[in-house]
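Q: Give me the 3D complex with zinc ion.
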Amino acid sequence: MTKMPPTRSNITLINAQLSDGGITSIRIAGPRIDALGAAPHPGDLIVDVEGDRVLPGLINAHDHLQLNTLTRPEFEKHYRHVREWISDVNAYRRSDPKFQAAIAVARDERLLIGGVKNLLSGVTTVAHHDPFYPFLSSLFFPTSVVRDYGWSHSLYVDGEEEVRSSYHATPADWPWIIHAGEGLDDEAGREFERLDALGCLGSNTLLVHGIALNHAQRLRLNLAAAGLIWCPSSNLHLFGRTADVAELVGLGRIALGTDSRLSGAGDLLDELRLANDLGVVDECSLESLVTTASARLLRLHDRGMLRAGARADILLLPARTRLAEASRADVRVVLIDGIARYGDRHRALPITPDAQWTDIWVDGRAKVLDSRIAGLVADAGIHESGLELTRFTGRAA
Ligand SMILES: [Zn+2]
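A: Here is the predicted complex, encoded as C-alpha cells.
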C-alpha cells in the first residue's frame, strides 16, 4: 500500500470549547490557524467537534527522545547530586544485559518511540536535550522537535570552558538549555553562581531542574528574564524533592518537561497530573506551563496559543476535561500543521479524510494513528508500552 502524505484542505472546526468554557470555531488554512470565531468559508471542510475541549498542541520542554525505551532503574535510594545517579546508571549499564540490549537498539528506533510517547499524550512540539539527530526532522517523525537551540549537558559533565563557549556560540534569540541545580548538596547549590560568573545567565538561558536554587537565586533568575524547566517526576524519583516553583510560575518563568523515562515517569499528561497533585499550580497556570509559557521561553513564537497566524497544532479533549485529569486514552485528536496524526477514529478521519490510518489500541482504547508513523512503529524492534497496532485501514470512505 502506498503511503502518500495527506493533502491539506481548509477546515473549520465548529463547536469547540475553549479553556474559559466559551464555544468557538477555528478555521485552519493549510498549516496555520486562519481565524477563531469566524464563519467557515465556502468550500471549507466543516467538522463539528461537538463541544470537545480545544487546546494548543502541548509543548514538552525537556526530553531525551532516545532514552524513553530504557527501563527506569529502581535503585531505591535518593541522591544528593545527580552525578551519583549517573554513576549508578553507568554501573548498571555495565552489569545488566537487558539494559545493554535496550541501549543497543538503533538510535532512530529509540527516537521514534520517544516521539510516539509524546504524540500519544497530545504533545506537538518537544525540546530534545541532546544533538539534533537527522531523523528528528523527518516528515515521518511523530512530533515537531525544537530545531533552533543551544545546549550544554551540565557543568559537571562538560566543564566550565565548554559550557561558556556553548552559551556564547548560541544566537541570543535561541534558547540555551542546561541541566543545573539538579541535586541537594553544595555542588548543586553553587551551579547557579558558577553559571552567572561565566556570563551564562541571560534572557535566553533555560535551566533544567533547579532543585537547589534558593529564593534569592530564583529572584535573580527572574530578573535575568531566564527560565526554569521543571521536571517534577524525575526530581522526586531521584531526590525525593523538586524545585520550589510557585513564585516563578506566577512570573511566567516555568515550563514543564517530562525528562526521559530513564528518570521521569510516563508522559507529559502524567507530569501535569503530578504537578497538579503537588498543589503549587492552579489549573490555568498548569495549562500555561505546557503552552504559552513554554512557547515563550523556548522562543517558539508561532505556537502555544490558539490565534490567527499560529501553527495549526491542536489538541482536542472530551468536553470539560481538566488537563490535570486527562490521560492519553482520552485524547480525541492531535493535529500538527493542520493535519490529524492520532486520535479517535470518528474525530480524526473527518478532519484529515485523505490520510491513511491504522487502527491501534492505546491503553485498551481504540484509536487511529497516521499509517506513516504506524508503519515505522511496526517495523521497529522495540515498542511503546500500552500501544498495540492492529491493521492498516486505508483511506476513509
Ligand atoms: Zn534531562
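A quick observation: The longest helix spans residues 82-95.
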